[in-house]
Recover the amino acids of this structure.
């Protein structure tokens, strides 16, 4: 296909959304109200996604914490083996008159 500039059509590209700074621009009350409405609509639209992500993140962190907590209890219950080994070592030790 031919390049647009070679066709002789020199229409400038349309600007769809020009960024403005409301504090620097002189905007009417209606324009400021419209900006607030649009921002509020965007926040409402994105709130559901954010809430879902926050719940998923919270559940993941909670699962990791419970896993660590459970593993700690499991490993502490394994320490009974060390007590049994110590008892066996005491039983095998030769008894002297001082013991």
């Amino acid at each position: 296909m031919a390049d647009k500039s070679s066709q002789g059509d020199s229409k400038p590209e349309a600007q769809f959304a020009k960024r403005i700074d409301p504090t620097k621009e002189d905007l009417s009350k209606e324009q400021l109200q419209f900006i607030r409405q649009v921002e509020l609509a965007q926040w409402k639209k994105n709130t559901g996604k954010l809430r879902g992500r926050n719940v998923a993140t919270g559940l993941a962190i909670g699962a990791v914490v419970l896993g660590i907590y459970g593993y700690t209890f499991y490993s502490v219950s394994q320490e009974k083996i060390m007590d049994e080994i110590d008892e066996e070592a005491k039983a095998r030790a030769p008894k002297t008159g001082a013991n």
Q: What stands out?
A: The chain has a mean pLDDT of 80. The first helix runs from residue 29 to 77. The radius of gyration is 36 Å. DSSP finds two helices and no strands in the chain.
